Amino acid sequence: MKNTKLKIGEQIKKFRVRRGMTQNDLAERIGLTEKQISKIETGVHYPMFENFVKIMDVLDVEMKDFDFETEDKKNNNVMTGILKTLNRANDSELKYYFIIIKQLEKMFSDIRKKS
């Protein structure tokens, strides 16, 4: 599981790139150096709260736009959704789900072989 500093930094970078901004652009707009932005985005440092607020303002994002859910929790939610769907299925539907899953499995296997 990624540490919180890195997760925050990765998301700041994602929002910055979506806005077409460089680290230097962001740094200038909030009064930091490019090096400081780099350290935030790579998880070396947390942004100070006041700078975090400025970053959100410049990037036009809110706290709710940040995803702090762990990969394990996301994967668990996906698996729970799949199992709920399968549990609701009748025998005929289960056969089709099985066929689809086998086809997806083959497709992903082929993709991995090409990589």
Describe the structure.
With 115 residues, the chain is mostly helical. It has 2 domains: 62 residues, lambda repressor-like DNA-binding domains (434 Repressor (Amino-terminal Domain), Orthogonal Bundle); 44 residues. 73% of the residues lie in helices and 0% in strands. It contains 6 helices and no strands.
List the keywords:
elongated
Summarize the helices and strands and which ones pair or pack.
Elements: H1 4-18, H2 23-30, H3 34-41, H4 49-59, H5 71-88, H6 91-114
Using the alpha-carbon principal axes, give the shape.
elongated
Portion of residues in beta strands equals under 5%
Major β-sheet profile: none
CATH class of the largest domain: Mainly Alpha
What is the helix/strand order? HHHHHH
**In terms of per-residue confidence, which ranges show pLDDT below 50 for 5 or more consecutive residues?**
none
- The CATH topology of the largest domain, please? 434 Repressor (Amino-terminal Domain)
Q: CATH homologous superfamily of the largest domain - what is it?
A: lambda repressor-like DNA-binding domains
Radius of gyration: 21 Å
Class by alpha and beta content = mainly alpha
Total number of strands: 0
Distance between the termini: 25 Å
Count of helix runs? 6
* Mean of residue pLDDT values: 89
CATH architecture of the largest domain: Orthogonal Bundle
Helix content class: over 70%
Domains (count)? 2
